[in-house]
């Protein structure tokens, strides 16, 4: 398949291009597009054949449901009942990086929700994304626009790397401003439960309802018989080509430990990548060092995370050593993604 690739800007959206992409969605095709969290791979959420193409293009397991993206607050056609707490979350955080799980209506086909009785709904903040949904005239089902298991794309180039030749259209735009996928909240249960941490943090959600909590499965290693509430949580995710190890503890000790491990790996003839921060990057003199940004600007760390994980792929790196982050605020989302990319290989010192 020939993929058309066009770069747009959120500030000066070319309506002709948006209408062309919207028409592709409406007629059953696949369009990758930017959002404020990560790039999405979109299809008409109400069209069984179109949604099936998403699973094929990504190599995604069929039991992993998709979330649907809307351009306005009228979600009644797709969901049965919107509890007050969900309404309040929508009012405060939409458009923005949070997905709300609600009971679905029959209009949403089983292939979209992986036969669950519920569906995740999100209104993205990104202007290109919302314009595309309006132009398509249908809700857009969109997982992250990566090959399944790989780090999510936060820039157009990563989308092209993963999906060129597999989709009809790649709409480029600015790099994603948050860089981690949306927070997912299950609003079919009381109290509301966070199934995936994101840029809308636990602390922010507690301001809506103090009882909101994070599903314990989010932070710990899945066990053999583990049945997660968000089916996606059971799969290996966000993995660059080389294995990742996280080193957690007092930052000075972490730097010393990583330097010691690097020497050992080099002795074994291995090429080592180090994921550091602006505060520590000068402390490593061997290995290929990439900084996620300053710890004092934690939002930059989440914004750069997936791009840095992907940056090691073309460097023949054998092992990636990564500093840990504190699990508060958006740090919870960062550590959730890092732990999964490392397959929970964490060294606590
Ligand atoms: O930020 C985002 O949410 C991005 C952009 C493109 O909007 N999308 C995204 O989609 O991250 P995806 O498919 O990569 O991740 C969706 C996650 C999966 O882990 C899936 O299992 C979970 O949401 N999920 C979807 N529907 C669900 C449902 N009805 N109940 C529980 N979990 C659900
Ligand atoms: Mg994904």
In short:
The protein is α/β, with parallel strands linked by helices.
Walkthrough of the structure:
With 349 residues, the chain is of the alpha/beta class. Helices cover 29% and strands 18% of the residues. Helix 1 crosses helix 5 (127-136). The longest helix is centred in the last third of the chain and has 17 residues, at 251-267. The protein is globular. The mean pLDDT is 95. The structure holds threonylcarbamoyladenylate and magnesium ion.
List the helices and strands and how they pair.
Elements: E1 4-7, H1 15-26, E2 31-33, E3 40-44, H2 48-58, E4 67-69, H3 84-93, E5 98-103, H4 110-113, E6 118-122, H5 127-136, E7 140-141, H6 156-163, E8 169-172, E9 183-186, E10 193-196, H7 202-206, E11 213-214, E12 244-248, H8 251-267, E13 272-276, E14 288-291, H9 298-311, E15 319-323, H10 331-341, E16 346-348
Parallel strand pairs: 1-8, 2-8, 4-6, 5-9, 10-11, 12-15, 12-16, 13-14, 13-15
Antiparallel strand pairs: 2-3, 3-7, 4-7, 5-6, 9-10
Helix pairs in contact: 1-5
Bound molecules: threonylcarbamoyladenylate (TXA) and magnesium ion.
């Amino acid at each position: 398949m020939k993929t058309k690739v066009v770069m747009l800007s959120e500030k000066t959206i070319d309506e002709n291009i948006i209408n062309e992409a919207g028409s592709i969605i409406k007629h059953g095709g696949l369009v990758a597009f930017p959002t404020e969290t990560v790039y999405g791979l979109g299809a008409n959420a109400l069209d069984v054949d179109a949604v099936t193409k998403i699973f094929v293009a990504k190599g995604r397991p069929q039991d992993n449901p998709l979330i649907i993206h809307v351009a306005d607050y009228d979600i009644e056609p797709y969901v049965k009942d919107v509890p007050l707490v969900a309404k309040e979350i929508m009012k405060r955080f939409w458009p923005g990086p949070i997905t709300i799980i609600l009971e679905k209506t029959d209009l949403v086909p089983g292939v979209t929700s992986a036969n669950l009785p519920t569906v995740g709904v999100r209104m993205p903040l990104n202007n290109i994304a919302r314009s595309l949904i309006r132009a398509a005239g249908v809700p857009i089902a969109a997982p992250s626009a990566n090959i399944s298991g790989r780090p999510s794309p936060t820039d157009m180039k990563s989308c092209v790397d993963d999906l060129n030749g597999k989709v009809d259209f790649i709409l480029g735009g600015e790099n994603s401003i948050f860089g981690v996928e949306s927070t997912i909240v299950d609003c079919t249960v009381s109290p509301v439960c966070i199934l995936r941490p994101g840029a809308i943090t636990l602390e922010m959600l507690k301001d809506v309802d103090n009882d909101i909590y994070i599903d314990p499965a989010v932070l710990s290693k899945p066990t053999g018989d583990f049945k997660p509430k968000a089916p996606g949580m059971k799969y290996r995710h966000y993995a660059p080509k080389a294995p990742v190890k996280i080193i957690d503890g007092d930052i000075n000790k972490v730097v010393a430990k990583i330097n010691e491990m690097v020497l050992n790996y080099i002795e074994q003839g291995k090429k080592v990548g180090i994921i550091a921060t602006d505060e520590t990057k000068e402390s490593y003199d061997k290995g290929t060092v990439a900084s996620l940004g300053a710890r004092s600007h934690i939002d930059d760390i989440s914004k750069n995370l997936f791009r840095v994980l992907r940056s090691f792929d073309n460097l023949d790196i054998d092992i990636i050593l990564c500093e840990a982050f504190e699990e508060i605020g958006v740090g919870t989302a960062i550590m959730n993604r890092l732990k999964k990319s490392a397959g929970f290989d964490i060294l606590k010192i």
